[in-house]
Write a structure and sequence with these properties.
The protein is α/β, with parallel strands linked by helices. It has a single domain, classed as Cytidine Deaminase, domain 2, CATH 3.40.140.10. It is about 45% helix and about 10% strand. It contains 10 helices and 5 strands; from the N terminus they run αααββαβαβαβαααα. A 5-stranded mixed beta sheet has the order 2-1-3-4-5, sandwiched between helices. Helix 3 crosses helix 9, helix 3 packs parallel to helix 10 and helix 7 packs antiparallel against helix 9. The chain starts with a helix and ends in a 17-residue tail after the last helix.
């Protein structure tokens, strides 16, 4: 290995270890904001819950928040409805958002809140479009860790990534999938996300959000904004009309 390449890898490793307070969870107010907006992402998926294989797509979705932690856009997985295997929640979220008027070709300064740890495709796409942060709820033991792989090879413009460890829905989903897979060898996380157990966990998110009493006064506006945002997300459908939900910048 050349001295230059060794230096680059050392610097990348140092950056990874020296992540921001928001990423590593040392900023309590940001951790609370991440929990609030993660609840909103779970609620967006539950509003159009898929009970059987087929239909719209998988029970995975995302919301986009601006630099002030205000939710501005949403999208859900539509791989079946669109007949396109690339239409994951994060891909749809960023593609549709960047097609909105006056947005441009990058999503720098925005945070993606997604219900499942991003796959390799979504991780690459969000890196290319310069998403600043990604916060996910449920870990994906089989196909997660894509961001770490990109960091390892020195890929540029890697976003910060975080998952709220104390969030009850995260704990329940992570443990639930582990138990589900033990009882049903050969299943995937997609199968688990069709289960009544997973639906109950997702359903609890909106209930908790409506009752949420933030510890930090500045986060009251985030709760209020998240609830107002959810009212605009249709109970069923709307995934083929995302342009109607473009923010008025």
């Amino acid at each position: 290995m050349s001295a230059f390449r060794h230096l680059v890898l050392v610097l990348l490793f140092s950056v990874t270890l020296s992540t921001s307070a928001a990423e590593n969870g040392s900023d309590p107010a940001q951790v609370e904001r991440d929990q609030i907006l993660s609840l909103a992402a779970l609620a967006v998926v539950h509003k159009d819950w898929q009970q059987f294989p087929g239909g719209r797509g998988h029970n995975i979705g995302s919301i986009l928040a601006d630099k002030d932690s205000m939710p501005v856009f949403w999208a859900r997985n539509t791989v079946n409805m669109s007949g396109d295997a690339s239409q994951h929640g994060e891909v749809r979220l960023i593609q549709a958002f960047l097609n909105c008027p006056r947005i441009g070709k990058y999503a720098a300064g925005f945070t993606v809140y997604t219900t499942l740890e991003p796959c390799a495709m979504c991780t690459g796409m969000m890196s290319l479009t310069r998403v600043s942060r990604v916060v996910y709820v449920q870990a994906d033991p089989e196909y997660g860790n894509a961001r770490d792989a990109l960091v390892k090879i020195g890929y540029p413009r890697i976003f910060e990534q975080y998952s709220p460890p104390e969030m009850s829905q995260k704990k329940s989903l992570d443990a639930g999938y582990k138990n589900f897979k033990t009882r049903n060898p050969g299943v995937t996380i997609i199968d688990y996300l069709l289960s009544p157990e997973a639906r109950m966990i997702f359903a609890s998110a909106e209930v908790e959000l409506k009752r949420y009493k933030p510890r930090f006064e500045e986060n009251a506006r985030v709760v209020e904004s998240a609830l107002a945002f959810l009212k605009k997300v249709p109970e069923k459908g709307g995934d083929d009309r995302l342009s109607e939900y473009c923010p008025a910048y």
